[in-house]
Amino acid sequence: MAANDNRVLFADERKAGVGELIASGDPWKILVADDEPEIHEITRIALNSYVFEGRGVKLLSAFSGEDVKDILSREDDVALILLDVVMEREDTGLTLVQYVREELGNHMIRIVLRTGQPGKVPENEVITRYDINDYKAKTELTAQKLFTTVTASLRAYSSLKIIERNRQGLERVIQATATIFERRSLSRFATGVLEQLREILKVNSNSDRSHSSAYAVTGDGDEFTILAATGEFGSKVGLPVQQVFSPEVMARFDALCGSGGEEFVGDEYLGVFQTKESSSCLLYLGGCSLLSTMERNLIRVYATNVAIGFDNISLTREIVDTQKEVIYTLGEIVETRSKETANHVTRVAEFCYLLAEKCGMDNTSAERLKLASPMHDIGKIGISEAILHKPGKLTKEEFEIIKTHAYTGYYILKNSKRQILQTAAIVAWQHHEKWDGTGYPQRLSGADIHIYGRIAAIADVFDALSHQRCYKEAWSMDRIIDLFKSESGKHFDPALVKIFLAEKDQFVAINSQFPE
Question: What domains does the chain contain, in order, with CATH numbers?
Answer without folding.
Answer: 28-164 (3.40.50.2300), 181-314 (3.30.450.40), 338-513 (1.10.3210.10)
